[in-house]
Amino acid sequence: MTGQDQIVGPTGEGGECAGKTASGRRRSAVGAAFVTTLVALALFSGGFAWFASHVGGLATPADPERADAIIVLTGGQSRLGAAFDLLESGKGRRLLISGVNPAARDEDIRAAAGAGKELFACCVDIDHAALDTIGNAEEGAKWAANHDFDRIIVVTNNYHMPRSLLEMRRFLSGAELVPYPVVNTPLGGGGWMTKPDALRVLFTEYTKYLAALVRGLVPRGTADESVSFAKAADR
């Protein structure tokens, strides 16, 4: 064997082994990524099924216990009417309507809810500052603190209730929040599976709920950035 053979032979074998090793690593990485993706999809799908079933099981309380006050989050069908019914029946001393369009007049809001003028004038506050669910929570917390309210009924649609409570508990950690879900479309017993519109709304709300959960894990140092991002996604 010549000196040249001794040099070329081992080097060629080493290159082949290195190529096989690199190829094996790539296959392992692809396989791991595939498994991770499958697990993530399974968790996401399972979480959505749980979320949809939970929302479908929510029902409007027939006779909720009295609270200090009521907060209704605007944006969904029948929310205002339900909130005023609670106020009229004495379930709370005051009502905050959060997230009202700045262009909306008080009289228009009163008429839309079918509320009496005296009750509206004495016991209703209107928040024009909140632009999203996070804003609802922020403004609701300020209002509750100003009036020293400890027990608050939260009125919003059933699909919106989980995220609303999640956001509001971050700002109203010292208050007891009583959910009052407004149900326009019954979704119990898996009914959401057969309603395309309900599926779309639930899926959208689920992704926003997950984003809110993740935002809660972000260190306080980056909280302002995460809130800004969440507000943009919530609009």
Oligomer designation: single chain
End-to-end separation: 77 Å
Number of strands: 5
Helical fraction equals 55-70%
Segments where pLDDT lies below 50 for 5+ residues?
A: 1-11, 222-230
CATH superfamily of the largest domain: HUPs
Look at the structure and give the CATH class of the largest domain: Alpha Beta
User: Any idea how many domains?
Assistant: 2
Strand numbers in spatial order across the main sheet: 3-2-1-4-5
Largest sheet: 5 strands, parallel
Describe this structure in words.
The structure is a single chain. With 235 residues, this protein is of the alpha/beta class. It folds into two domains: 1-57; 69-183, Rossmann fold. Helix content is 59%, strand content 12%. It contains eight helices and five strands; from the N terminus they run αβαβααβαβαβαα. It has helices at residues 3-57, 79-88, 106-113, 117-123, 133-147, 161-171, 196-215, 223-234; strands spanning 69-73, 94-98, 124-127, 151-157, 176-182. It has a five-stranded parallel beta sheet, with helices on both faces. Strand 4, helix 6 (161-171) and strand 5 form a beta-alpha-beta unit. Helix 5 packs across helix 6. It is elongated and about 90 Å long. The termini are far apart.
Q: What's a quick, concise take on this entry?
A:
The protein has about 240 residues and is α/β, with parallel strands linked by helices. It has eight helices and five strands.
Topology:
Elements: H1 3-57, E1 69-73, H2 79-88, E2 94-98, H3 106-113, H4 117-123, E3 124-127, H5 133-147, E4 151-157, H6 161-171, E5 176-182, H7 196-215, H8 223-234
Parallel strand pairs: 1-2, 1-4, 2-3, 4-5
Helix pairs in contact: 1-7, 5-6, 6-7, 7-8
